[in-house]
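Question: Now follow the chain.
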Amino acid sequence: MIIDINTKPIPHNHIVALARPGANYRLFQDFIELSFVGAELPGLFRHDEHVDVHDDKLIARIQRSKEIRAWHNFGRSPERVPSNNLNEYDNAADDPSTGQLLRVLKFYLDDARAGDLVVVPPQNFGGKVHIGEFEHGPAGAFPAVVQRYPGDPIVVRRVKWIGTLDKVDMPVRMIEAFRKPTPLLLVPQSERAAFYNAAYKNYYTDHRFSSTFDVTSAEFDTTSGSVIPAFFNFVAANTREVDRATGVIHAFGAGAFLNLAEYAPHLAIDIQSPGTLSLVSSYITPLVASALLALALTVGPAASTEAVLGNLQVSNSAATGDDACIVPVREQVVTHLRLLGYDKWAEACSLLKEAADKTGLQSEATVKGDK
C-alpha cells in the first residue's frame, strides 16, 4: 500500500517573480492565452536570429525595440518607420530605462530556471492573478508574435499556468510595490506564501511545510468545526513525540487539546463552497496530517494493521524518487499507527469519517494499492 503525499519540494534557490504584462497590462491576454511571458521589447530579435543575452549589440537592440514599441503605440506612421539597422542606435547607452530593461532581460534570458515561478497580475482588482512555472531553462527563449506588435516579435519564455489568485488577495506589500511602473519585481521569501499556496496544494521549503485540505460544504456544525482542528493538534502532538523518540502516543481526545508551543501548526480557514483549510508548520506535521487523513478516509482502522505488518510505503509524485520528505513522513505515519494501535486509531477514523461526510473534507494525499 503506497501513500502518495503529492507535495512539491521548493529548493532554497527558488525564484518567484512578479511580471507586468506590458505597459498598462496590454499584453495580459497574450501571456495568459499563449502561455508565455517576456519583456515588452518588440523587434529585439527577429525570428531568424539567435536569442542571446550576451549579444554584443544588445544595448543597441534595446534602443531599437524602444523605438519600434513607440512607433506601434503611436499610430504606426509610414513616415516614421524605425530603422532596422542596429548601427544607427547607441550601443553604449547607460540611461536608467536601458539599465532596467537589461536587468529584466537578464532575468528572462539568464537567471530564471525551469520550475521557477512567475506571477502575472491583471490590471483590475476584480481579476485573477495567474501563477505559472517556467517550463524550460533560458535556452528555451524564442521570439513570438503578439497582437499589439504585428511583424515585430517579443522574446518570451514558455510557462505552464498552475494556479490563480484573486488580485485583492495578493500580499499588500507586493501590491504597493507594483504600483510603480516596474516591469519585473522579485518576490522576497517573506511574501511568497500566498503564491505558493495558490500554485501548490502541498509544498515544503527549507523552513516551512504546508498542506491544503479541501472542503465542499460551508455548513460546519459545532462537531465538525471542532473535530477537524482537533485532528490537526492530535497529529502535531504525536509528531512531537515521534521526533523526540519518547515512545509515548496520545489518543485523539488527549492529543487534541495539548499545549504544543512551537509544535502547534498554524491553521488558515477559507470556508466557501468549495473551501480550503491550510495547515502550516516549521515541523513536518502538515505532511503527516495529509497522509493520515487519506488513510483514515480510504483505508480506515485497517491501516493500523498494515503499519504493523510493514505494508505501508510513501511516495511523492510531485518530486523525484529520492525526495527528502519520503523517509521522515513514512517514519512518522508508521510510528503513529503502530503506537496508537487498532482501537485508538479506529476512534480517530470514526470521528474523521463523520466530519468528512458532513463537510466533504479531503486530503491532497492519495492511497494506492489494496485498501
In short: The chain has a mean pLDDT of 94.
